[in-house]
């Protein structure tokens, strides 16, 4: 199996996709087939269509839509089988890609054996709601089995207004873990906050309404100033009496939440200024 193209550093914005494609003699993608009728496949097919691309799909699994490129928006465990189905459909795609944030290009091996170039295209966005999310301004992890394939993936990302960031296969687990912590685990934390607010007599819906402005402002502050400057609260100021009181309140709501609370307190202490660290006897 040929080695995939070695990418730029993942934090380095790539040159303009059209310019890169021209420099490599790689034609810009003008038509794409999308496989997967879930939230991601449906949203991307619609977005590509609105951008002016000719789009076939979203098609069902096992189908082979037409297009210069075919993008597989299927569960990670089904990527190889979907790639094999595209090859069996003999629709002549010169590029076959997946929308997974975690999987390497080798998951598309059946397409490579059939002569297609491979690419990855993972929008760094959440697709949980009934309404498709805004993609403009979002990051997009890309990969390519050659410089031309990487340029094609970058072009597709930029067509939707996203910033293309090339991620090597060896870096994908770290990239995807960061995304899970930032998005999935945030939901877990807010669900936990809702539950703990129940100890103060709030219904979950009322707790959510109360906490949303705080969460939004905190995220805005973190985006503007970074974690150390954004951190506030009893741990940040070294107020161990309040932390102890909070811990008792959490235990009263659900003792199973104490391990999470304790882990968060310790991690928060690592971000707090040195003067806010508790004395050894307080931490014991």
Strand and helix map with partners:
Elements: H1 17-24, E1 31-35, H2 39-50, E2 54-59, E3 69-72, H3 79-89, E4 95-98, H4 109-113, E5 117-123, E6 139-144, H5 147-159, E7 163-166, H6 172-197, H7 204-225, H8 227-230, H9 234-237, H10 240-253, H11 258-271, H12 280-283
Parallel strand pairs: 1-2, 1-3, 3-4, 4-5, 6-7
Antiparallel strand pairs: 5-6
Helix pairs in contact: 1-5, 6-7, 10-11
CATH class of the largest domain: Alpha Beta
Our Rg estimate from Cα atoms comes to 23 Å
> Any idea of the CATH topology of the largest domain?
Rossmann fold
Biggest β-sheet strands, sense, barrel: 7 strands, mixed
Q: How do the helices and strands follow one another from N- to C-terminus?
A: HEHEEHEHEEHEHHHHHHH
Would you identify the CATH H-level superfamily of the largest domain?
A: NAD(P)-binding Rossmann-like Domain
Q: Would you report the number of β strands?
A: 7
What quaternary form is this? single chain
| CATH architecture heading of the largest domain | 3-Layer(aba) Sandwich
How confident overall, as mean pLDDT? 88
What would your notes on this structure say?
This protein folds into two domains: 17-167, NAD(P)-binding Rossmann-like Domain (Rossmann fold, 3-Layer(aba) Sandwich), CATH 3.40.50.720; 174-283, Orthogonal Bundle (N-(1-d-carboxylethyl)-l-norvaline Dehydrogenase, domain 2). The protein has twelve helices and seven strands. The protein has helices spanning 17-24, 39-50, 79-89, 109-113, 147-159, 172-197, 204-225, 227-230, 234-237, 240-253, 258-271, 280-283, and strands at residues 31-35, 54-59, 69-72, 95-98, 117-123, 139-144, 163-166. Strands 2-1-3-4-5-6-7 form a seven-stranded mixed beta sheet, with helices on both faces. Helix 5 (147-159) links the parallel strand 6 and strand 7. Helix 10 runs antiparallel to helix 11 (258-271). 31% of the residues are buried. The model is unreliable at 12-25 and 280-284 (pLDDT under 50).
